[in-house]
Design brief:
about 575 residues; Rossmann fold; alpha/beta; 13-stranded mixed beta sheet; single chain
Length: about 575
Amino acid sequence: MEVRVGVADLLKMGTKLIGHKIVQYRLASKQTKVISTRDGQVRGLRRRTLYDEEFYYAFEGIPFAQPPVGELRFRAPQPPRPWVGVRDCTYPRSKPIQKHFVLSIVEGNEDCLYLNVYSKQLKSDKPLPVIVWIYGGGFQFGGAGRDFYSPDYFMKQDVVLVMFNYRVGAMGFLSLTDRDLDVPGNAGLKDQVMALRWVSQNIAQFNGDPQNVTLMGESAGAASVNAMMTTEQTRGLFHKAIMQSGSMFCEWANEPRGRWAYRLACLLGYSGTENEKEVFRFLQKAPASEIAAQGIHLISKEEQREYVLFPFTPVVEPYITRDCVLPRSHREMVPAAWGNDLPLIVGGNSFEGLFSYQSTLYDEEHMLSAFEALIPSEIREKRSPAQLKDLLRQFKVDNFEDATRGRMEFNECLQILSIKHFWHGIHRTILARQQYASTTPTFLYRFDVDSPHHNHFRQVMCGRHVRGVSHADDVSYFFYNILSTKLEKSTLEYQTIERMVGMWVAFARNDNPNCPQIAPASWDALDDTGPHMCLNIGKQLEFMELPESKQNRFWDKLYEKHDLY
């Protein structure tokens, strides 16, 4: 996926990155603190928050696994080696190696398995609730750095926040079927498992409660949370979950295999056969920067037109190993998943489909008339041409006033993609919760704050002239980032930050997101049989039936009931 933005936006992003680092340096205090972990001592730094200049402690760049290089490239992470002396953890380490989704430059490092711990207090009467953040980025981009995920907003609260790197792209999700190679896939998910084990074993040293850990993620991070709730590898390592704009039921979280390893090798100059041992040997020796630079370009134009979004994503592992995360499909694992016993917040943004603004714009003539490609691939593969024709006819009747027309309006297409890429996967998660997790609460939300200047993902992806609450716009209300500015406390944007962080921390603390910041509004959990009621978070807070429910019911018709969840 190539993102095109204006020169002015790129210049602003570069300037803001430099400015952000300067601001963070000025906020830093010279006071340090040394903490003992299982693997050795770490030195952190006392910092001040952006608002109110409250103190907190930052420990950045703590290794939670061995560097995944050499023989460990593409493979499951290994426990970190203990060290002697005090390790300097006063600054974040490099993000995983990747191609920047806006600037199109290769950045990061193969040696990337480090985490950051931010603690409001290192001593208190009771240990603090812990929130662990998993970043999004389609399993292709992202990192646990302060450029996008500065902890200032959370550090106004009595909480411990943890964020970690996991490998992305081919480095994290290359999958081969040959048992001898020991690369079944999902190394990036196995990184997440390793990080959660580190939290369980060490977070008490940072005044965090290892018996009260909330796992929180957005987009691919939300799908990752969903995967962590189903795999037995994580049983008991966390106690609550928050899924923002993503689910393992979303198509993009389970892309078809697509012979990605062989295609990547060929793109890098390999001229041999599809023998996996030969392909693997080639990729083991290939420069990491070249793998990162080319991996995202594997998707052909024809595949893009079929809405294949990413080449390397989670897979059902072809054979079982000690580290196996996904031995079966997500839908098969959900009925008996241990995570069914966990309280959950789940939801999305009101115009998620703006995520596809650029890909639709640059192939507009085709994409606005490609009705058949809107039908999920898992449905198309199981239907005969005649059945597919009937499904498509019903789809048009359900979604358009004039079911005979041959072209969609631009925004109309993006609204449908909101359902296809995000909301129907979220909906299927809710159906599964109602079926298999009826005794534990599920809280549904819809983020609808359409700020002209603080919805940063939309600004970069779509430009300043476009309005609506895009995919990933909510992230700027949880974390200070390189495009953020310091807000007046009287603004809607600041009030929304207070609300969002207040609700999420209340949920982490009490299993319930209701808190003083949203009073007198009240947010109730879903019931088993009624309409899907959500907290709509806009200028006002309103508890209402999810506006996307009607479209979700249309999309349900595409599936046999036993295939929905």
